[in-house]
Amino acid sequence: MKLIGFLMQSSKEYVTVMQLHGEVALNTLKEVVGLFKGKIYQKPPVRSSVKRALRVREILDIEILEYEYPYVLLRVDCEHGTYVRKLIHDIGDILGVGAHMRELRRIRTGPFKEDSDLIKMQELSEYVYLWRNKGDPSFLMKAVKPGEYIVSHLPKVIVNDVAVSAVTHGADLTVPGISVIHEKIRKGDPVAIFSLKGELVAVGIAQMHTEEVLQTRRGVFAKTQRVVMSRETYPPLWKKHRGAG
Amino acid sequence: MLKGVEFVKKLDEFASLERSYILVKEFPTSGEYGKSPEERSIEELLRFGVINLDKPPGPTSHEVVAWVKEILGVSKAGHGGTLESPT
Questions:
Q1: Which residues of A touch B57 (CB under 8 A)?
Q2: Looking at the partner chain, which of A119, A125, A148 has a beta carbon nearest the beta carbon of B37?
Q3: Span A66-82, pLDDT tens digits
Q4: Which residues from chain B sit within 8 angstroms of residue A47, using beta carbons?
Q5: Which structural domains are found in chain A, ordered by start?
Q6: Among A12, A149, A199, whose Cβ lies nearest the Cβ of B14?
Q7: Which of A106, A145, A181 lies closest to B21 in CB terms?
Q8: Which has the closest alpha carbon to B35: A81, A211, A21, A196?
Q9: Which of A31, A62, A138, B20 is deepest in the core (most CB within 10 A)?
């Protein structure tokens, strides 16, 4: 999986306008919308790019922001792959009046929010102009964040220089290479592996919980899944290491 | 090494997460290779960077990616999300 895949698999947040096909009381609406919080079943719509099999998706949060019949403004925080259009149709069914999605805007993709660091296309082209024609890269440098931000929502581990070079050459991350670790990593979690300088080295899948790392002090902590850093960045230190040992 | 921890905590903060870390073992890091992501030049950022771009409703994500590649003069770029197509 490409690095961007870990972002695609992250939770998404939307604001959406639901149009009701019949009037209901605010209390009823609140009650029914509340029922959709948690795990729900969804069958992908006819016009979709995935297999149309019933699947489970989690609605992490759903909130009514405004209600003025026939429009309901909703904020939905959900697992990736949730169809908001479908969700609204289903809410309409349970309400007994029917509903459809009128408008949709994504306000968050994983860690990326719709706030001050959101850049407009116009702004980007201005920043490129200032860089290329005026020799001032400072605006563009603020707009382009280090790629590490792509996985800023993942649990993280910081490893020593020897482990960095071994992992970039395709090795799995072993416990002795770990310097700093997030306290709550669970076996099976995707884990972002960082160097002592803060560079993203790779993304792996945890093979043990954090507590086990502290107890065992050996073995494979994470199976390397996607190497990000070029193998030329750090010299092949583990060879020297092995020779000396 | 403190720099790495600081930066990682900055990433957590960006993602609105409060996480605690455990120091397993302290190691030195060589000054001869690698560097903090915050010390990258614009050219380096364009090789491995991310833009939180507000895509207008008109063009497709694919078209916007092609436009970004062209104005930045980069050969590789992708996007991290598409909304379902409007009906």
A1: none
A2: A148
A3: 999 999 999 999 999 99
A4: 85, 87
A5: 11-113 (3.30.70.3190), 116-144 (no CATH), 151-244 (2.30.130.10)
A6: A149
A7: A181
A8: A196
A9: A62
Interval A130-169: pLDDT, tens = 999 999 999 999 999 999 999 999 999 999 999 999 999 9
| Domain ranges, ordered by start, for chain B | 2-72
For A176-243, give the DSSP string: GGEEEEETT--TT-EEEEE-TTS-EEEEEEESS-HHHHHHH--SEEEEEEEE-S-TTSS--HHHHHHH
Give per-residue pLDDT as tens, A195-220: 999 999 999 999 999 999 999 878 99
How many Å apart are CA B45 and CA A224, to the nearest integer? 24
Flag whether pLDDT at A239 surpasses 80. no
Rounded to whole angstroms, the Cα distance separating A58 from A63 reads 15
CA distance A79 to A58: 5
Chain B closest-CA separation from residue A69 CA (Å): 23
A198 and B7 Cβ atoms separated by less than 8 Å: yes
For residue A244, the model assigns a pLDDT of 43
Chains A, B: CB contacts within 8 A come to 187
Q: Searching chain A, which residue's CA lies closest to the CA of residue B44? A: A146
Please answer whether residues A216 and A168 qualify as being in contact, where contact means their C-beta atoms are separated by less than 8 angstroms.
Answer: no
For range B17-38, the mean pLDDT: 94
Contact residues on chain B for A168, CB-CB shorter than 8 A: none
